[in-house]
Design goal:
The chain has about 260 residues and is α/β, with parallel strands linked by helices. It has 10 helices and 15 strands. The strands form 4 sheets. Strands 6-5-4-9-12-14-15 form a 7-stranded parallel β-sheet, sandwiched between helices.
Length: about 260
């Protein structure tokens, strides 16, 4: 395939998927991973894509762009599942567990369905439905839903959600984020979601952030928390060495999950 055709195909894939891996592009285009990396470097110089460790994503900060749940749920599936399995080891019988909205926390919820009995507090419509629909196959989990205004990622946010969380006390919060950055910390493109997630953090004894490698260097418009506010960060093994070093120095404990 000629270079121009490869470049067009790569840009189309990034626009469609938002985040793509070198290995997937190499298979799609029938070329080597090294060729794809050179193509991505060239496209980044033109401002058409942004290079990340192991792949490429849509360029720019996109500080207020909030992809819908359906789109995000098709991205980095193996990485999110690995993060969920690793995070589930932190859950024990009888705990009160907070699950913020997001596709990685949703993946964790699926794993927790097969685990010990816990009480779940969530602002995610999807997670609440997941536990409700599974209650027929086994003894149901107590699930508390915050209420609030619905976002494109199916989170319930705003003053109602925040007020509900201020009344609660959680053993552990599992927090999904839009981006993570050395200076901005953990961020989101939704101002109200940032406020609701801060209330989640205040309600929790321990805060566990779940974020795959593509979140590194992404900065949403609103900060949720600084890196040091995370007791644990669970990410995947495709995260670059520089990012690992920064995050290991910033968060309480860095845990790496292998897809």
């Amino acid at each position: 395939m000629l270079q121009a055709a490869r470049h067009t195909a790569i840009v189309d894939a990034v626009q469609r998927e938002r985040v793509v891996r070198v290995s997937d592009l190499a298979q799609l285009l029938g070329v080597s991973a090294m060729t794809v990396r050179r193509d991505i470097e060239s496209l980044e110089e033109s401002g058409l894509v942004e290079r990340i460790h192991g792949g490429a994503k849509i360029p720019g900060d996109a500080r207020t762009h909030e992809p819908g749940f359906e789109l995000k749920s098709t991205q980095l599936i193996e990485e999110k599942h690995a993060i969920a399995v690793e995070a589930a080891t932190l859950v024990h019988e009888g705990m009160a567990v907070g699950l913020s909205a997001g596709t990685t926390t949703y993946e964790l919820a699926k794993v927790l369905l097969e685990g010990p009995r816990i009480t779940v507090v969530t602002n995610s419509i999807r997670i609440a439905d997941l536990f409700h629909n599974a209650s027929g196959s086994r003894e149901g989990f107590p699930v508390i839903v915050t209420g609030g205004e619905r976002t494109p990622s199916d989170a319930l946010v705003g003053p109602i959600a925040t007020a509900a969380l201020k009344q609660l006390h959680l053993d552990t919060l599992f927090l999904g984020v839009h981006g993570m950055d050395a200076d901005a910390g953990f961020t989101t493109p939704n101002l109200q979601e940032a406020e609701t997630n801060r209330a989640f953090i205040s309600a929790a004894r321990n805060v566990v952030v779940l974020a795959d490698h593509s979140k590194w260097g992404t900065v949403g418009i609103a900060s949720i928390a600084q890196l040091e506010e995370a007791d644990v960060l669970v990410t995947d093994s495709h995260l670059g060495e520089d990012a690992r070093r920064i995050l290991a120095d910033g968060v309480g404990k860095l845990r790496i999950a292998s897809p």
